């Protein structure tokens, strides 16, 4: 049995070893976990392989380079972070296999995929470029608390950034440009109908949206804020869309955005006339507040053209109880404010504008 002096010597030795950098088993285990909390991906390596090997709470760090692949995330609390815009995810060769095959086959760049009853939580996508996919740059479904920040989404065939069936999302300080449909698209269901979802406070803020068909589309949702975005050079700026479904879309805030010169021409679809010169449109929604926006020089001759437009939904649902107040709406044509809906309880107060339909709204 060791003597008291031997035990003291052993204790001193252990203390010196710790001081000099040797670790106890517990510390070594913690260090091992820390070393593996960030998975670094170099050009020529697979992002998907790193994602597949990551656990909740870990980060995939993508170094500058071009990565020709789709990426599918099915793990909660995962962060996919690039090194800025030079970390580029773009379309890879056809016939992808493995975890990302379904995402690639659908034509998307990054897929974040939960399931009904099991939403993915707190996934973060940050500081990278996603470009050149036939459908969506980022496509998310069944998520809770997902965050997309400092992403450039460009030249994708449909949506730059898309999310459905999700709550508490944050889409902030991104640039989405030159996409075939929306810069940012949030919906209850991307391809289908149904009552509006309460997003529990989702936010679209401080983004730059240019050269898309529409800058921001919010479809069949409630309890969401669109604020402080710069939206210019699209066919249309912001579309807040509902219908006759229950619960109704609405209880949204659209505030402090700059929406100007959205004068591209986009051909009609099976649901909408052609789009050109459209600032902010409300169609088939209720109790939405459009306040303190600057909406200028959106000019066209479409039924959707004008600064702020209330437009009857394609299924005939009226907009009701919406508040249009304290906006600067100037130089839009054919009108700065246009109520082409006729729904009950919509109010126009304190706006700076010159021309309205019908007269008297300014």
TrEMBL record:
Pfam families: Beta_helix. It comes from Kitasatospora kifunensis. It comes from the Bacteria. Residues 1-28 form the signal peptide. Keywords: Signal. Residues 106-258 form the Right handed beta helix domain. This is Right handed beta helix domain-containing protein. Gene3D superfamilies: Single-stranded right-handed beta-helix, Pectin lyase-like (2.160.20.10). The keyword Signal applies.
């Amino acid at each position: 049995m060791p003597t008291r002096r031997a035990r003291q010597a052993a204790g001193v030795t252990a203390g010196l070893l710790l001081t000099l950098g040797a670790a106890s088993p517990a510390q070594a285990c913690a260090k091992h976990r820390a070393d593996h909390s960030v998975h670094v991906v170099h050009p020529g390596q697979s992002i998907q392989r790193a994602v597949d090997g990551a656990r909740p709470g870990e980060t995939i760090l993508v170094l500058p380079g071009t990565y020709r692949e789709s990426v599918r995330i099915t793990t909660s609390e995962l962060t996919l972070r690039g090194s800025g815009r030079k970390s580029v995810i773009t379309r890879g060769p056809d016939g992808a296999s493995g975890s990302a095959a379904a995402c690639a086959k659908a034509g998307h760049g990054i897929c974040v995929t939960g399931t009904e009853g099991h939403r993915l939580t707190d996934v973060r996508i940050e500081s990278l470029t996603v470009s050149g996919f036939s459908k969506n740059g980022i496509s998310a479904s069944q998520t809770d608390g997902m965050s997309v920040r400092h992403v450039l989404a460009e030249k994708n065939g449909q949506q730059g950034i898309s999310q459905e069936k999700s709550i508490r999302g944050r889409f902030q300080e991104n640039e989405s440009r030159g996409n075939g449909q929306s810069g940012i698209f949030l919906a209850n269901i991307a391809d289908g109908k149904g009552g509006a979802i309460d997003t529990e406070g989702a936010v679209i803020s401080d983004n730059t949206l240019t050269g898309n068909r529409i800058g921001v589309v919010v479809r069949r949702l409630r309890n969401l804020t669109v604020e402080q975005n710069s939206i210019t050079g699209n066919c249309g700026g912001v579309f807040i869309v509902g219908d006759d479904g229950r619960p109704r879309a609405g209880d949204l805030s659209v505030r402090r955005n700059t929406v100007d010169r959205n004068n591209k021409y986009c051909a009609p679809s099976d649901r909408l006339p052609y789009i050109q010169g459209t600032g902010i449109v409300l169609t088939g929604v209720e109790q939405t507040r459009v306040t303190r926006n600057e909406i200028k020089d959106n000019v066209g001759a479409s039924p959707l053209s004008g600064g702020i437009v209330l437009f009857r939904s394609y299924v005939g649902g009226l907009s009701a109880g919406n508040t249009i107040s304290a906006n600067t709406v100037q130089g839009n044509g054919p009108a700065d404010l246009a109520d082409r809906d006729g729904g009950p309880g919509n109010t126009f107060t304190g706006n700076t504008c010159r021309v309205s339909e019908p007269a008297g709204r300014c």
